Amino acid sequence: MSQFPVKDGELLVGGIPLSRLAARVGQTPFYAYDRQLLTRRVALLRAALPASLKLHYAMKANPMPALVCHMAGLVDGIDVASAGELKVALDAGANPREISFAGPGKRRAELSQAVAAGILINIESFREVAELAAISHETGCAGRVAVRVNPDFELKSSGMKMGGGARQFGVDAEQVPDLLTEIGRYGLAFEGFHLFAGSQNLRPEAIAEAQIKSFELALRLAGSAPAPVRFLNLGGGFGIPYFPGEQHLELAPIGANLSGIVERAARELPAAELVIELGRYLVGEAGLYVTRILDRKTSRGQTFLVTDGGLHHHLSASGNFGQVIRKNYPVAIGNRMIPARLETVSVVGPLCTPLDLLAERMELAEAQAGDLVVVHQSGAYGMTASPQAFLGHPACVEILV
Ligand SMILES: *Cc1c(COP(=O)(O)O)cnc(C)c1O
To answer: Which Gene Ontology biological process is one annotated for this entry (predicted)?
Structure first.
């Protein structure tokens, strides 16, 4: 499953053997992201998707400034979810016209910053329209807005559903015509629609179906819009394989489906640029979490490798970030990739909670204190999605190699 090559029994990150890299970082635990893998991933996608489709990076997946800077040079735009992320995107050199801002509770100050920055704001409530109208009135600067629609369908078999039914995200499709009237009345600069049905999906047919339904819903709503649709964000949801038995997402059927939508849009929404926004698919497989074994213990016949990292840096790998049933992430002993012997062990962290588990009874290379445990598929929802302050252990470090 790993995208990282092995040489002389060690994983290579950016061509550097893992133990050498750990020495360079000067501490464990750390996250390492591989620039070349990021670049390759975007190229793979571009080759499979229609040329006119814009590709955005949803930076909540990984907001490390150096990584966002690298991504900003590869994708067409950045999607942010707070004023803090907006700062990182602007610092990274992203074009404000191609930054969009979504999130269910945007504060007045954040909306003001977004208007001043000239980015596109995905409106998620009637309150946001009123706030933006007031900001526009005060500053003489009409906010650029799109409507985030809570669709009347779901993205089937998604890891996390974020649309359909009752949701805190977006505005229900049936309320959107009234919202569009308000936007027109206040003279905000209407630019389009944003739909995001869910994430972590590995079924191309489910993604394709959601994209078609999203397009058709936007087409219907466009009839009530105060201006032509210039921007249509069809969401994303592309998943990556985390667990045994999961396969890489097949891109060809998704690309073919999107080509059909692009053709229809040219006729039916001729002013619209189509966008998809991806987080984990772009960055998830390019990252490793690296932690060192401190202790090796046996308890009633089971072996535990106790490491200096765990749940406080990598909540997702511990199984506590939205998973229903805990499964092991792809874990390996990064400096013993060609093992002399295998053994079944549990890998735990230093925290005083049984939730601090990185691998449960997994077959790994036989390892000792000082060896490096790596968690693959860790480039998204890692450090910033984890409770680093929990139990007061040293902070984690991130590097881009
Ligand atoms: C979280 C989020 C994404 C990214 O989801 P991934 O599963 O990482 O691709 C994209 N768009 C919106 C609106 C989101 O909230």
So the answer is: lysine biosynthetic process via diaminopimelate
Task: Select from 331, 334, 332 the least CA-distant residue to 317.
Answer: 331
Structure tokens belonging to residue 175: 């309320």
Average pLDDT, the chain: 96
Residue with tokens 């849009």: 265
Percent pLDDT > 90 in the chain is 94
Phi, psi of 347 (to 5 degrees): -105, 120
Does the domain at 6-32+285-400 match CATH 2.40.37.10? Answer given as yes
Whether the predicted pLDDT of 14 surpasses 70:
yes
**Where, residue-wise, is CATH 3.20.20.10 in the chain?**
63-278
Residue 348 in this model has a pLDDT that exceeds 90: yes
56 CB less than 6 Å from ligand 1? no
pLDDT score recorded for residue 1: 57
pTM score, two decimals? 0.96
Is the CB of 236 inside a 6 Å radius of any atom of ligand 1?
A: yes
Mutate to test the pocket of ligand 1, among 41, 55, 60 (most ligand atoms within 8 A of CB): 60
Q: Which fold has domain 63-278?
A: TIM Barrel (3.20.20)
Catalytic residue among 69, 141, 352, 396: 352
